[in-house]
Automatic annotation (TrEMBL):
Biased composition (Basic and acidic residues): 124-145
Protein name per the record: OTU domain-containing protein
Segments of skewed composition (Polar residues): 154-164
Location of the OTU domain: 6-81
Region (Disordered), start-end ranges: 123-164
Pfam families, sorted: OTU (PF02338)
Amino acid sequence: MRDNPERFIESNTEISWLEYLNNMSMQGTWGDAMIIQAVADQLKLKITIAETHEGFREYSIIQPVSSTQQLTHVYLGHIDEYHYVSTLPCTSMSGFVEIYPEQSTQSSQPKQTRTQYINKYMKQKHDNERQSPEAKERRRVYAKEYRKRKRASESSQPSALSIETKQKKRLYAKEYMKRKRASESSQPSTLSIEAKQKQRLYAKEYRKQKRCEIEPLQSLISKFHDIVSQGPLYTCTCCDQLWYRHSVIPVTTLKENYPDVQKRLLNRKSVNNVECLCKTCNKHLKNNKVPPCAAVNGLQFPEKPLFFDLNELECRLLAPRLAFQKLMQASKNLWEHC
């Protein structure tokens, strides 16, 4: 071994001399490995060293060069900030697999094995330790803050992966509903029949409710027709014409702001004993002008004869001052105005 160490390494281990030099050239392995190798040869130990820090090899397995006796397994190393030494029997480490450099560079199996080993070790460590209530509370608060920060970062910076995931879920839900409808239509189940019955009852109640809403609507429509047949009921106190409710306003505000308009008004009250003014006359009176159709200009409607059974609208339509009711001489030539 002193003269030709490469032959000794290649004949007694499963790795080549170059791989051995590559492993020994890593940080913290050369001198430590030589000492640990001597300890393993002397005490007949199979030592597994794990390091999670960057720059160190993930696993180092050191065992005696030649031994016919049963080996004692020892596990030691650093996992994150934890230092551990364990002498668990090999049967409890069934998930552990020896890892060589060529395997770690070609596949992800070492990382999975390492994760499984760490999870088992940490679970056993937590089961054996008795944690104080203060430590549990600190861990709970830290986990809560961590989840809160993680959700905030994900909401502020949505990744393309999350968008693609949502799209996949949406497409999957769409296809699922399509298949479900097809299966229900081809093979109707008792559940679908019950759902149809509920839907039928709901439609019946809905139609009944709508009929109850339509009945007062019909009464409003008939009332509207009665009002239209009777004509407008609101009388303007300036022009003495009939208007609908939306075309008149109370005259009290105009009297307060413009006291001089009183001489142009008839002081005639209308529906509900309220004196109203049409919007046309209101516009002229605000500008201190006499409305063209004001009654004070001599454009009053004639009084209704006692023997005529006419309403207010009919009286105004039959007034002689309206153009289409004026008496005119008929033309001598019937074809003159054709």
